[in-house]
Amino acid sequence: MADPLEERLSRSFAALSDPVRRDIIARLTVGDATVSDLAVPYDISLQAVSKHVKVLADAGLVSQRKEAQRRPVHLESQALAAMTGWIERHQQRAEQRMARLGEVLADLPSSDTTGTSDTHGAGQ
Question: Mapping DSSP to helix (H, G, I), strand (E, B) and coil, where does residue 70 land?
Fold first, then answer.
């Protein structure tokens, strides 16, 4: 059985593969907004924006609650924190690997690649 955290990360990263959904997330960092509010800057239908919000909600990145006649979309910051943690862990591992590689390369004897150290050149 697959790890639930890995499944959620996969859905989250897949959801953010679309530029409209990334923009929606960026706009929700400022505050909650209705689907109508979110649709304003796009040249797409309200239904299309609703579908984008649904993909984000299915990935756990946003939620909606009913407030009187409104249904504001809310950014779930803990989902972004999980993604950030995953990225930071892998970034740290990659940086450690590159540091080790740098140490190995620094320990290698240097060689003169200019060709000036060859005193027995051909034809002399």
Answer: strand
